[in-house]
Amino acid sequence: MSEHPARARDAGLACGDLPTGALNGITDVPGVRVGHRTLIARNIRTGVTAVIPHAGNLYRKKPVAAVHVLNGFGKSAGLVQVEELGTIETPILLTNTLSVGTCCTALVRHAVEHNPDIGRRTATANPLVFECNDGYLNDIQALAVTEADARAAIDSASPQFDVGSAGAGCGMSTFGFKGGIGTSSRRIDLDGGNYHLGVLVLSNFGRPGDLRLPDGRLIAGPESPADRKDTEKGSIIVIAATDIPLSDRQLKRVIRRSGVGLARLGSFWGHGSGDIALGFTTGTILSHDATAALVGCRILNENRIDQLFEAMADATQEAVLDALVAAGSMEGRDGHHRPAMLDSLYPIGPVTS
């Protein structure tokens, strides 16, 4: 493949007018880190991606969180408790569909290691794992992901991380092209302070021929007529982070706007698609060990929430384009191939400045 830009903005695919953070990624939110474990061998094209909300003990200091399901054709774990209690208490792992159980076990072991009272003197832990089906490029039946791989993703977490075909994104496809991990952020100024909303996506959705760029161009790609008539069978996981103090109800309102960004790209959340958004804020932390009957917290004045709605829509849209730009092309299981989106966008040669 020709040398192409590494990020969506390098390819001129910016979304919206709001300013980005310095990294234009989810880790612009202070304390958030991301790690990968990528598995490539013979017919294996898979992996694990970990999102760590803060550097402390997540079980003891729980970020307020919310989940929103656009279409629920998926096998993720831990969503029910997030919906009920409005917090998260483990790292967030992304992987392939048949590796959810393995990653859950790894998260439980990680939580117990740091909190020996779990399940004995206090409550059990709620492992949070999201999945997409990478079976076109990856031999998903091989069950290649191990607990050690999940732990390696957690241990490698850093503010700087790869996008594209890294970690859980290794075997993913988007609109008939190679997909994967993408990220973007927006800076939001409130009462003289700088805050951020960042998005990370595991992009594995979209019917070939439906991709629409920010300037309105449709990118048909190399699909066959049969592909174009196919049903939407993919999935996307959207993880949003912010340091703006929010309630779980406000977070749910914000992450719903991920659907705006996906619709702009050409998605309609088909019957067979698992499209799920999770958001958390490091600006509102609840203590597992609090003893007071009443606890206080700050939340955003709801009259200012439109800025977050706009940021969520724009950052989600750009994060998917980020994954498409960075992923390149890939040959996987049994010779299956996904081309690079930019090879269709710039079919003659590399982009030059």
Explain this structure.
The structure is a single chain. The chain is α+β, with helices and mostly antiparallel strands and 353 residues long. The protein has one domain: L-amino peptidase D-ALA esterase/amidase, CATH 3.60.70.12. The chain is built from eight helices and 15 strands. Strands 3-13-12-9-8 form a five-stranded mixed sheet. A four-stranded mixed sheet has the order 1-2-4-5. Helix 2 crosses helix 3. The radius of gyration is 19 Å and the shape is globular. The C terminus is likely disordered.
Task: Give the topology, please.
Blueprint: E1 33-41, E2 44-52, E3 61-72, H1 79-85, E4 92-96, H2 100-114, E5 128-132, H3 147-155, E6 173-174, E7 177-178, E8 180-190, E9 193-204, E10 211-212, E11 218-219, H4 225-228, E12 235-242, H5 248-256, H6 258-265, E13 274-287, H7 306-327, E14 330-331, E15 337-338, H8 341-345
Parallel strand pairs: 4-5, 12-13
Antiparallel strand pairs: 1-2, 2-4, 3-13, 6-7, 8-9, 9-12, 10-11, 14-15
Helix pairs in contact: 2-3, 6-7
